[in-house]
Amino acid sequence: MSTRPAVTSHDAVGLLRGMVEIPSESYEESRLAHYLLKVLESWGFTASLDRVGNVVGEIDRGPGPSVLLLGHMDTSAGRPEVRLADGRLHGRGTVDAKGPLAAMLCAAANARTFRGRLRVVGAVEEETPHSRGATEIVRQGDRPDAVIVGEPSGVDAVVLGYKGRLDLQYDVRCASTHPTNPQPHATELTVRAWHTLLDVLGPTSHHAFDRPGATLTALSGDLETASARLTVRTSPDFDENAFTEELRRRVSPGDVTVVHSVPACRVRRTDPVVKALTRAIRGQRLSPRAKVKTATSDMNTLAEHWDVPMATYGPGDSALDHSADEHIVLSEYLRSIAVLSDALDELFLSLGHR
Q: Which residues are part of the catalytic machinery?
């Protein structure tokens, strides 16, 4: 077992600033991946890059449960100035989601009483529809006993679940005709398809977890050919097959293609990971909160394939995701490291008999 000194607050802040100073928009995570590879190796992890570019670090502390901590390296577009002011670190990714990933790395290194195997993954392409990094981790087949996903929940909150996502492509082609011809043209049919989608969905909301929400994300075309990209954030009871079949029936002669889909996910408050994080938050003299989110994360991808204890946690205010003023309060970031370290110890106690 490594005798390396514990990761200090100074180390933790230096790690996060170093990560934020390296731009890593989706598909451009390689430089950050190699930076993290060196950090993990210096902290006593066995570390490597997998075939899609994920950073995978592992510490084996003897017999015990296997816990996966997975966050993502990629960020949305934009490069606001990286600066430290008034106890806040500003810059792209401080919240979504380099802060949560850095907290996981520090917590795993500092969880000295945990016995078992800790695997920390910095995943690629979470901000894209296909979540290629998390999908690759599932494909590798190394199913853990428990999972913590790193996303901004707030230092005192645990995320129990996320809405799902259904990405559709609508394409239509019409015969060449004069603009005054009363027959509907391709662009008109595409607009009709959007309104038909809303009609098939029924009541929608981007704020309610139990209702789907729809977005017309792209639209292009002319009188002869047109296309649209339609995204539905799906609720837990959403029947994707029935919905898609009905939509196709009603928008003929156009074609509807499923580009990507992942179902909603939700765990109970009694989930061992939720309980471990909740106890650890209380240990920091905070009042724990549980929440669900109406977006989608890598938790959806992992939960679709693995029926294991799982929840999402990480520092940062998600209202700042992708914003020009994205920043993280460093005192909360440091407290989240303590929460995660204590939660890992709790998981050893609750899962160690397995």
A: 74, 126
